Amino acid sequence: MEKRSAIFYDEMDSPLGPLTVVCSDLGVCLIEFGTLDNTLATIKVWLKKNFIKGDLIYCNERVQPVITQLNQYFSGERAEFDLPIDLIGTKFQCLVWETLKKINYGETKSYKQIAKEIGAPKAVRAIGGANNKNPIPIIIPCHRVIGSNGALVGYGGGVDKKEILLEIEGVIKKIS
């Protein structure tokens, strides 16, 4: 496991509400829905669970490239992210997340399709579990995974946020 000397964070506003962005020396490692005040306990548990030691430091400079690209995405100026990622999870989770990164902007795939792509066609529920544990939503586009029937099912930040992200990408029409 890579050594991380410090963990940097900053907050941003988004169409989904506030986001807390966390980066290590190696890249973006966590995005939480909510302000730091609301997510600090969750972030600390995640860091401890993943054996990440290092001070949690407010540092806009280290996190700004992520915030800039997220803002570009939200405004429709960016379809792909070009950021270093510090992906932390089990071997299976990382396989699923790497597969999710291949789903193009404006497209969706079902959990069943993802299971087939990774060579585990019976692992649909496990795909859902890995999707739920995705530490870097939006950048690793777990919002692009839908039910086999086309339904918007499950999203760590809530299905309402998934719907907003898919509206931004033009997958679904805005419901007003």
From TrEMBL:
EC number: 2.1.1.63
EC class (word): transferase
GO molecular function: methylated-DNA-[protein]-cysteine S-methyltransferase activity
Entries under CDD domains matching the protein: ATase (cd06445)
Alphabetical keyword list: Cytoplasm, DNA damage, DNA repair, Methyltransferase, Transferase
A GO cellular component entry from the record: cytoplasm
Gene3D superfamilies associated with the record: Methylated DNA-protein cysteine methyltransferase domain (3.30.160.70), Winged helix-like DNA-binding domain superfamily/Winged helix DNA-binding domain (1.10.10.10)
Active site: C142 (nucleophile)
Reactions accelerated catalytically: a 6-O-methyl-2'-deoxyguanosine in DNA + L-cysteinyl-[protein] = S-methyl-L-cysteinyl-[protein] + a 2'-deoxyguanosine in DNA; a 4-O-methyl-thymidine in DNA + L-cysteinyl-[protein] = a thymidine in DNA + S-methyl-L-cysteinyl-[protein]
One GO term of the biological process aspect: methylation
A UniProt-annotated Pfam family: DNA_binding_1
Domain Methylated-DNA-[protein]-cysteine S-methyltransferase DNA binding: 92-171
InterPro entries recorded: MethylDNA_cys_MeTrfase_AS (IPR001497), MethylDNA_cys_MeTrfase_DNA-bd (IPR014048), MethylDNA_cys_MeTrfase_DNAb (IPR036217), MethylG_MeTrfase_N (IPR008332), MGMT (IPR023546), MGMT_N_sf (IPR036631), WH-like_DNA-bd_sf (IPR036388)
Any further remark recorded for this protein: This enzyme catalyzes only one turnover and therefore is not strictly catalytic. According to one definition, an enzyme is a biocatalyst that acts repeatedly and over many reaction cycles.
PANTHER family according to UniProt: METHYLATED-DNA--PROTEIN-CYSTEINE METHYLTRANSFERASE (PTHR10815:SF5)
NCBIfam families: ogt
Protein's name according to its UniProt entry: Methylated-DNA--protein-cysteine methyltransferase
